Description:
InterPro entries: CBS_dom, CBS_dom_sf, Diverse_CBS-Domain
Organism: Myroides pelagicus
Largest sheet: 4 strands, mixed
CATH architecture: Roll
Keywords: CBS domain
Number of domains: 1
Protein name: CBS domain-containing protein
Pfam families: CBS
Helix content: 25-40%
Amino acid sequence: MKQRVPVSQIMTKVLIAVPTTKKLSEVNALFSDYNIRHIPVVDGDKLVGIISHNDILKIGFSHTGIDSEALNDIYDAYKLEDIMTKNPLVVTEDTIVKEVAELFAKQRFHSLPINDKNGNLVGIITTTDLINYLIAQY
């Protein structure tokens, strides 16, 4: 296995990010449209949070059996800022893959936003990215 591989080599670089003003129903649609589970939340160019598909599912869980329009109304009763994880842990693009794996193993989350050395959001890494990397090593 390669040693000291920076996360920039395996991170997702084409990002879907949303502003804090985005409706929760629209965010939910992005999860389906792009088959993703985590979306960084930005205020201008600054990362302010991250939202997962599970965060949204928790809201709708007690409302199973209702139509999608009614469920979207329920979602939109919340503000994105109320649901997202604020000030998420961030790694830099030169963080070593092993360090990211250790963070995932110790924490209860499955994605990390990635900043460049200037603090700009440049990617995201998920446990799926990490697993795919490990599979490619064999």
